[in-house]
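Homework help board

Subject: predicted structure for assignment chain

Our instructor gave us this sequence and asked us to write out the predicted structure in token form, then describe one feature. I got the tokens but I'm not sure how to describe them. Can anyone check?
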Amino acid sequence: MDIIEHDTMAGVLFDNHRQSGPVAVMLRYDTSDPLAVGLVFGVGDQPGITWVFARDLLSEGIREAIGQGDVRVSPSSWQTTDVELRSPEGTCRVRFYTDELQDFLQRTNTVCPPGSERCEKSLERMLQGLLRTV
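My token output:
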């Protein structure tokens, strides 16, 4: 199992048009869940808040607007990309430098090229989790 993590700072704009200062965000990829990437937001000494979504969504969203539902990704300028996160509590837009996202994705592609993902173990873990709740 390989884990790739990249710490960065991102700007955040909330749905009430309130903007935060730079926020610490970790980009995370784990080959045990090969189709997903995570954004982990640091909250002081508290455990981070994590959003997990498709790696393809991030990869394609760098070039063109994509996504429906809780996560949408789109270029916001020639050098930045926005990841929009929606929840019942509200919406926020997280702005990253595109070159940092591209570097992170290139590192994930090195350990698990797109199209070569093996999902059997991920699917098995998901099914076991579902069956435990029944």
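Reply (TA_rk): Your tokens look well-formed. For the description, you could write something like this. The first helix runs from residue 55 to 61. That's the kind of observation they're looking for.
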